[in-house]
Amino acid sequence: MGIFHRLRPEFWNGAADGGPYRSLFNYRRVWRLSVLLLAAVTLTPLCIMTVIDFNVTKQAVTQENLHRTTITTSNTRRTLSYFLDERLAALNFAARAESSRALASQERLAAVLADLKAAFGGFMDLGLIDASGRQIAYVGPYDLLGIDYSTQEWFTRTMASGSYISDVFLGFRNVPHMIIAVRAETPGGAAFVLRASVDTQRINDILAGIDLSGGGDAFLINRDGVLQTVSRSHGSVFERLNIPVPDNPDRTEVHEIPDDGGLIIGYASIERTPLVLMVVKRQTELMRPWYAMRFNLVGFLGASILVILVVILGVATYMVEKIFHADQTRAKTMEQMEHTNRMASIGRLAAGVAHEINNPLAIINEKAGLMQDLIRFSKEPPPPERVSGLVDSILASVERAGAITKRLLSFARHLEVHIEAVNLRKVAEEVLSFLTKEAEYRRISVDVAADPAVPDIESDRGKIQQILLNLVNNAFQAMDDGGSLRLRVFRPDPESVAVAVADNGCGIPAADVKRIFEPFFSTKKKKGGTGLGLSITYGLVQELGGTLAVDSELGHGSTFTVTFPLAKGDDGAPAARG
Amino acid sequence: MRLLLVDDEAELVSALAERLNLRGIEADYATDGDAAADKVRANAYDLAVLDMKMPGLSGLDLKKKLQRLRPGMRFIFMTGHGSEEDFRAGSAEAAGYLVKPVRIEALLAAVEAALAAGRS
């Protein structure tokens, strides 16, 4: 026996007894609908909120990364700018504090370089170039004394603008370096240029000192996109950068590049230099905290969905099971009520039938008695034709009594559920036959009109008898002597057949019409009405897949129209046999 | 003694009348209220045996009608129903009450009793 079999609720297989009124609903469908609706109502907002939270958090983390990159880029730009400006200012000071004559002395120049190194650091060498571009003094690791720089761009730009910070270039020493040059003038008005090479290692140290997350990289490029410092993963000095560079990166800018696994790139140009700082961070690294958070979020969502589904399944199963049990109790009560009503009907019929049978019995009694009297009191034996007439009369009365008992038996025989072809006109006439004598005594005119085109239906004959008997009995009770009862069998639409039971009795007050099918509602309680007749009739009609409608006018009569389906429905309702 | 039998079952009432005739009792019969009234107008009956339930006029109503036509006439009710209601009405309104099928001896006894009660 599987676990599902053990956990399967009772309603799963529906009503076990299969009796009448067995269930009002398709409980599997109700259960499925409840689970779906509850799941939709609870899980949809949860999923929507999770997706929103997911995106908002992701966006916040991304924005935070962009913001941090902006700050890092901006701060590094300021540090580098300050580093270069400081050295430019120091060189400017040296050029103005010392005369060109003094600086032309190798010893003095070396002393100045030593002072600059000691005070500021970051200087590699120092050279004095006269206005013609010739280096007239030089201290440093290269042999550059006497070199003519007049054609060099840095020289002409220094002479033109007073100072210059270069990008990295090879120059005469054929080693990548970067220079700062300032122009000064002798008291006599002769211009000269004091030039120093910057120790790029100091710049590299500044860039290496930036707190970058794993996989981050910071380096300098020139405006042509050529690397000026060593990059961890984007090439060596003088190589062209393999990622796009903005056209005019004068401001600090940060961009996302989805390629290459996703990059966040910060750009900032170093003022008064041809240099551009670039800070490159890998999004996969930056988003690592987000990935951890995402895992937690998805995990929480999954756990929540699981818990909610378990609760929904439990609650829905419990509720539907409770409704199912209540429905089963109702069905059993209704079944008992119907049985009681049917027994009461048979009891009522029996009283009427006894009366009807008494008449032929009385005739038999009198005819037989007469035959006896004729033999006893007449001197001559009665003629054979007289005896034969009396016997015929007795036999006719026996036949009449037999017909009455057969009718009653036909009613009692249909206590069990049995689907068969039913002719509604015949059933209506059969039911009315029980009440013929009462109608005669009470001078109630009874009329049955049936549309000949109405086909037989596949249904439960006994239940239809019960329904019509209840309605006809009700009509008889509603009418005074001399009333009129009309039964009409017709086809209201191609899918159904109907019987209308119309009386011209007392009618039903408008306020009561809505309640007459409720159990225990009766307007005849003082006359012994239980209030169950119409309620049971309504239940029987529903059980056969039909409808019961009432149209009543107080003081003028009522018409009860019961409609039976012609075609077999999905719910097991009876079907037509045309 | 002259009797009138009234019942909507003609075969029953005719046989019963004949059986009474064979016993020397002058008995007529009618099968509805109007015919019964006509006969009462025409003949001096001492007693009428009426079926309680008949189409049209009921036994009780017919009794009232015939009583108006012939005051002092005695009545016996006959019924095939035997309900409590019939029994109460029959016992109160008539000198006798019989349930169908009626044994002839019971009818004769009821007739005797009714006529004796009328004489006393």
Biggest sheet statistics of chain B? 5 strands, parallel
Kindly state the percentage of residues in helix of chain A.
40-55%
Tally of separate helices of chain A: 14
Content of β-strand of chain A? 15-25%
Secondary structure: helix percent of chain B = 40-55%
| Class from secondary-structure proportions of chain A | alpha+beta
Overall body shape of chain B: globular
CATH-defined architecture of chain B: 3-Layer(aba) Sandwich
The CATH topology of chain B is given as Rossmann fold
- By CATH, the superfamily of the domain at 414-578 in chain A comes out as Histidine kinase-like ATPase, C-terminal domain
Mean pLDDT of chain A: 85
Q: Spans of chain A of 5+ residues with little confidence (pLDDT < 50)? A: 570-578
Q: Would you kindly provide a written description of the structure presented here, covering whatever features stand out?
A:
The complex is a heterodimer of chains A (578) and B (120). Chain A has 578 residues and is of the alpha+beta class. Among the domains of chain A are: 98-202, PAS domain (Beta-Lactamase, 2-Layer Sandwich), CATH 3.30.450.20; 414-578, Heat Shock Protein 90, CATH 3.30.565. Chain A contains 14 helices and 17 strands. Chain A has helices at 3-7, 27-97, 100-104, 106-119, 153-161, 200-208, 283-286, 288-377, 384-413, 424-433, 436-441, 461-478, 510-513, 533-543, and strands at 123-130, 135-139, 163-165, 178-185, 191-198, 217-222, 253-257, 263-269, 275-282, 419-422, 445-450, 456-460, 484-493, 496-503, 547-553, 557-565, 576-577. In chain A, strands 2-1-5-4-3 form a five-stranded antiparallel beta sheet, with helices on both faces. In chain A, a hairpin with a 5-residue loop joins strand 4 and strand 5 (191-198). In chain A, helix 8 packs antiparallel against helix 9, helix 8 (288-377) packs across helix 14 and helix 10 (424-433) packs across helix 12. Chain A is rod-shaped and about 190 Å long. In chain A, 31% of the residues are buried. The mean pLDDT of chain B is 87. In chain B, helix 2 packs parallel to helix 3 (59-69). Chain B has a five-stranded parallel beta sheet, sandwiched between helices. The radius of gyration of chain B is 13 Å and the shape is globular. Chain B has 120 residues and is an alpha/beta fold. Chain B has a single domain, classed as 3-Layer(aba) Sandwich (Rossmann fold). Classes of the chains: A alpha+beta (578), B alpha/beta (120). Chain A binds chain B through residues 351, 354-356, 358-359, 361-367, 369-370, 373-374, 377-378, 390, 393, 397, 437, 440-441, 443, and chain B through 9, 11-12, 15-16, 18-19, 22-23, 53-56, 58, 80-83, 99-104.
